[in-house]
Amino acid sequence: MDDGERGRWDARHRDAPDPTPRPPDGLVGLVDVLAQATGRRALDVACGLGAVSLWAAGQGFAVDALDRSAVAVARLRARAVALALDGLVRARVADLAGALPADVTGPYDLLVCQRFRDPALLRSLPGLLGAGGVLVVTVLSEVGAATPSRFAAAAGELSHLARTAGGCEVLRDVEGDGKATIVLRRAGP
Fold first, then answer.
1. Looking at CB atoms within 10 Å, which of 52, 116, 133, 172 has the fewest?
2. pLDDT (tens digit, 9 = 90+) per residue, 121-131?
3. Residue 60 sits in which domain range?
4. DSSP one-letter string for 120-178
5. How many domains is the chain partitioned into structurally?
């Protein structure tokens, strides 16, 4: 990623209000599926200011949070301290283009990627799930989008991810109004 793009994200996160901890968008109405996870590790890919990371830590998950913006990561760390969750949130700067950092290996019981789309990276995520682990991906989609975006997923892109994620059950697969969401759960022990 070039410095101009990094600067744009840093500026966006610098001026944004502190987030309220909340579950991933795709888990609304499905939060109970996390009860089948065998451990309590979470990964928040492109975490931004960390609303999902903070929520997951509040649920007792040890969270690895990754983002390209140093400003977002610093603000997430500070917010975790303020909420007494800093022992559960490990946030760091990472360039996510094409792949996760080599030391991010799983297994994870909750894996979230919202509003960040890199097809190669997305294909690698199901392999990081532990038994009973849940993957939640929500991205922009060209399906029903009001305006075209070079960042939008093609129709059926996340559905294809679900079909190629061996050993995973599809809990949610929706597309429309300019966004797509997939929720997968790895088979339990």
1. 172
2. 999 999 999 99
3. 3-186
4. HHHHHGGGGEEEEEEEEEEEEBSTT-SS--TTPBPTTHHHHHHHHSTTEEEEEEEEETT
5. 1
